Amino acid sequence: MSRSVKEVEALILEAGRKARRETSAEPEPELVRPAEWPIQCTVGPGLEGAIACESKVGYVNGAKGWLIYRGYDVFELCAHSNFEEVSYLLLHGRLPSASEYAAFRKTLAEYRHLHSTLRAVLGFPVERMSTMAALRLGVMMMRQELTHMDEKEWHPRAMSVIGADEDSIPMETVPRGDKHAIYEFKRRRRLGPGPSGNGDEGSGLGACYHLIAGLSTVAAAVARVHRGRLPIEPDPDLGHAANFLYMMTGRRPSPVEEKVMDVALILHADHGMNASTFAAMVVASTLSDFYFSVGSGIAALNGPLHGGANEQVIHTLEEVREAGDVGVWLDKAAAAKRKIPGFGHRVYKAYDPRARVLGPLAEFLAQGEGETTDLFAVARQLETHVVERLGQSKQIFPNVDFYSGLVYRALGIQTEMFTPIFAVSRVAGWTARVLEYLENNRIFRPRARYVGEFGKEYVPLEDRG
Ligand code: COA
User: CA 94, CA 85: separation in Å to the nearest integer?
Assistant: First the structure.
């Protein structure tokens, strides 16, 4: 790839200008301010419209197509920042100083080494599990590696069950001439208590760092095992996005590939009270810990109405290409009342700002790349048709998932990793929001409206016919 990072930045900034132009007619939103609790709001099914808490982490405005993290426009962050800096911003509420940034990068690089976790995870049939199930398993194993909270009940010890002599087994052949690519399971580093210093390693800032760093290692290992390969040891000299790509593909990425991966991770890092964030927060509100919360976030993200949509998009594009005619394919989909993956959004009734960035990046990466070029052409046609039919009438536009898969495919990433990548990024938002919520925690407890029967008389089993 001979193109430059500057070109990628220019595409992002242009996407931001286009977004502002196209939504300038929308009224400016009433700027947000703290509420007097209890508040009144109109709530629909699926808690639509419900306001459950206050947050300073991020803001989504569906009519303007705004996505803001801690006051910064996501277009600006994508153009100028990287995933580590954005994670710091989300967790701490401000951009780091140079020394804070260096220290944070170093901590993440250290936390990427998950020897016991990977050894435990590889004791399971990961190659036959869904990648999201394996990722969730990895998070539970990370919890075990870092915390001692369950030790009394921990019987039998997982490590002794999984195998006796892994410490001596070299786990990977050196890929494509890269040195230090063998995951050295024998090297163990005892991680000290997290920066919270409260000794409760499952619930402090240290757990957030551990999860942000570690999810990338687990996801990359799962990607390798799914391709019949063994994990690759993290490279401490690489940034988070570059290292993640390296651990998945076995190849150190070019600066453009690293930049694109950073942008994808930034774009997915936080998005209001979406289903997985809410799931993570509900679990945290019971004073369970960050690992259980993130595990629940992963579980919620797995569904095709949420994170799973990006994989469905690729399958759909392949199906449409086979069908040969986008219009005919859409007619059939509409007749079958099928929702088109990658379109529509509960909040955005304008073009999703994340799709505004990922669309041009997918196009940029697809140029001259054979199969990706074909699929991109199908995607553009599908977008044109769907927006023509449903844009005005139902405010249906591409969402974040529509182009993300094409971007990942151009980076050499297999389809079953698209949703885990979403988790590798969203863990920053999950942990930031949980951390914030716990400052004023109140257990989540909405109500259901009972529409069942009353006054029924119990009939013994033998009399029920
Ligand atoms: N394709 C075709 N029609 C769609 C559509 C899609 N992807 N998404 C919504 N619609 C239509 C619905 O059929 C409905 O039409 P109706 O009013 O005639 O019944 C209308 O738009 C409202 O849809 P609804 O499902 O009520 O919106 P929602 O806010 O509950 O759901 C999503 C939002 C994201 C779950 C929904 O748009 C969807 O399923 N999209 C596809 C999956 C996807 O890409 N998910 C990733 C989200 S980031």
Answer: 9
Question: Is-catalytic flag, 148?
Answer: no
Mutate to test the pocket of ligand 1, among 339, 351, 422 (most ligand atoms within 8 A of CB): 339
Contact of 271 with 67, CB cutoff 8 Å: yes
Instruction: Check pocket membership of 285 for ligand 1, CB cut-off 6 A.
Output: no
Nearest CA to ligand 1 atom 21: 394
Distance 206 CA to ligand 1 centre (A): 38
Among 275, 283, 245, 376, residue whose Cα is nearest residue 321:
376
- 186 contacts: CB under 8 Å, gap ≥ 6: 115, 167, 168
Of all residues in the chain, the percent with pLDDT exceeding 70 is 87
Note if 155 is an active site residue: no
Number of neighbouring beta carbons within 10 Å of residue 395: 15
* pLDDT band for position 322 (cuts 50, 70, 90): confident
Of 341-345, 347-351, 393-397, give the lowest mean pLDDT range.
347-351
First to last CA, the chain: 73
Would you state the structure tokens that stand for residue 273, as one six-digit string?
A: 């009270």
Q: Is 344 in the pocket of ligand 1 (CB under 6 A)?
A: yes
pTM for the structure as a whole: 0.88
Q: 435 near 345, Cβ under 8 Å?
A: no
Sign, Cα dihedral of 341, 346, 350, 353:
negative
pLDDT score for 371: 77
Q: How far apart are CA 154 and CA 137, in angstroms?
A: 17
* Ligand 1 within 6 A of CB of 396: yes
Q: Does residue 61 sit in helix, strand or coil?
A: strand
Give me ligand 1 centre to Cα 383, in Å. Answer: 15
| Amino acid at site 189 | R
